[in-house]
Design brief:
The chain is of the alpha+beta class and 229 residues long. The strands form two sheets. A four-stranded antiparallel sheet has the order 2-3-6-4. A two-stranded parallel ribbon has the order 1-5. The protein is built from seven helices and six strands, in the order ββααβαββααβαα. It has a domain at 9-83 and 181-221: Gyrase A, domain 2 (2-Layer Sandwich). Helix content is 39%, strand content 14%. The two termini are 36 Å apart. The longest helix is centred in the middle third of the chain and has 23 residues, at 140-162. The chain has helices at residues 17-29, 57-70, 89-95, 140-162, 167-170, 188-198, 205-221; strands at 2-3, 7-13, 80-88, 102-105, 123-124, 179-187.
Length: 229
């Protein structure tokens, strides 16, 4: 049995997202950019931050801020980002409720955890509620009972598989704490919606933990689109 931590990894994202949004947004207004690329290039300068769009990054960011302030968020649907998210099954159940996204999830039906790929063992994510903010255990018995429960689930799963029960049936004994991987792609507008809901104080603590990691990566991709999070 392994205890692993949740994580997120950016797999793909639209290059130069602010410039893409500006180019698409100006179609609506039929307006010309006020701040042009200092190189005046059309993609001929590899180090240029305009991405070949011919406008300055500062100008593109100003345009995106204006779009967001006006609530004209349909324009930001032109850019997207996709992540590989490692979390427990409970968190995946919350994420897949977001309809405007593409998902690819680790299948407990087709994944045989007795196989060599998984080292013949299962992985679980321990919930944060067993440790208080000071870093000490609320109750050693509580943490011990959780460990006993997931270890028992693993034992029963492995036993069922050893008796020839197929993975799609043996999986029925596995708990929400089972580690799962989820590929999730959204456009920028939906990612903003996800973060508004999933970083809120009322969100589940494990969901907030994952959402905070997503927010950090999204801000690296496009600071102006996610600067409020």
């Amino acid at each position: 049995m392994k205890i692993v931590k949740p994580s997120v990894r950016l797999v793909h994202a639209t290059p130069f997202p602010e410039h893409v949004i500006e180019a698409m947004g100006r179609v609506c207004y039929q307006s010309q950019p006020r701040k042009v690329c200092p190189h005046g290039c059309g993609g001929g300068v590899p180090s240029c931050t305009c991405g070949g769009y011919g406008t300055s990054r500062e100008g593109a960011q100003d345009f995106v801020r204006m779009i967001l302030q006006r609530g004209h968020e349909s324009v930001i649907e032109h850019v997207s980002a996709g992540f590989l998210i490692t979390c427990d099954r409970g968190v995946t159940h919350e994420l897949v409720r977001h309809r405007l996204a593409a998902f690819s999830q680790e299948s407990t039906r087709y994944c045989d955890y007795t196989g060599d790929r998984f080292g013949g063992e299962l992985s679980f994510i321990q919930p944060p509620g067993l440790v208080d903010p000071a870093g000490t255990r609320f109750d050693r018995t509580a943490e011990g009972l959780w460990m006993d429960a997931v270890e028992e689930a693993e034992t029963v799963y492995l036993y069922l598989r050893s008796r020839g029960v197929p993975p799609e049936i043996a999986r029925s004994v596995l708990p929400n704490s089972l580690k799962s991987q989820l590929g999730m792609t959204c456009n920028a507008r939906e990612w903003r919606h996800v973060l508004r809901l999933r970083t809120a104080p009322a969100a589940h603590p494990q969901m907030r933990e994952v959402a905070a990691m997503l927010a950090a990566e999204l801000k690296r991709w496009s600071p102006v689109l996610f600067e409020e999070f």
